[in-house]
Amino acid sequence: MNSERGGGGRRGRLLHSGGPGHIAKGRLNYPGAGSTENGAVPHDVPCQISQVRLGAGPETYHRVAQGILSWQLQRRSGLRVFADTTVVVPGARVVSGFGIGPLRINAPCEVVWVRRPEPGSGPQRAGFGYGTLPGHPIRGEEAFEVRIDAEGEVTLAITAFGVASNWFYALGGAVTRRAQRFITSRYIESAHELAAGEN
To answer: Virtual CA dihedral for 71, 75, 33, 134, nearest 10 degrees?
Structure first.
C-alpha cells in the first residue's frame, strides 16, 4: 500500500497560500495521532464508523479517490474549505467552516497520513486522516477512505473519534453529535456524486 505519514456556497472554497502556519497554529491536541490509518483507534474515546457502498469498478474507485485527495469531499458537502495545499499531503493544514455569520464554527486540522491509489484494479484503499488542532470543537481524528475489494465493489468508510475540546462544547454534546451526523451524511452524498462523475 502506498501510504504517507506526516506529523462559501454549495461547493465551498479552496485557498492556496504560503505554508502550514498560515492556515492554522498549534500542534495536534489529542492522543493516538494516526491511529485511524489501521483502525486501531483509542478504546476509551467515542468512535463513529460509517460505511456505504458507492458502486463498482476501478473507474468509480479512482474517481472517488481523486476527489477525496483533492479536498472535494469536504467542498462538495457544503463546507468552506481553506487549505495550504491543493492536494492532500501529510502535514497539510486545513480549516473547514460550517454555519452562518456569528454562528460559524471553524475546525482546523492537520493531515496525519495519506494513502494514494495504486496502479491496477486489485483490492486496495485510498484516502487520508486528519487530526484536530487548537480551536477545533473536538479533540480527535477523522479519516476518509474509499475501498475496492476483490469483486470490484467500491465502498466509502469514514472513521471519527474524539471528545469535546472544552466545557462549552461538552455542554452542547447532543447538538454536536447531531451536527457530526449531518456533516457525515453530506460527506456520503458528496462521495456518491464523485462516484457518479458529477461535476
So the answer is: 130
Cβ neighbours around 59 below 10 Å, total = 13
Secondary structure class of 196 (helix, strand, coil): helix
Is there a contact between 82 and 23 (Cβ–Cβ < 8 Å)?
yes
Q: What is the pTM of this model?
A: 0.84
Integer Cα distance of 62 and 112 in angstroms? 22
Grid look-up 463546507 returns 79
Question: What mean pLDDT is reported for the chain?
Answer: 83
How many helices (H) and strands (E) are present in the chain, helices listed first?
5, 8
Distance separating alpha carbons of residues 184 and 172, to the nearest angstrom: 18
Q: What is the pLDDT of residues 162-181, one digit of tens each?
A: 887 654 455 445 555 666 77
- 23: number of Cβ within 10 Å: 21
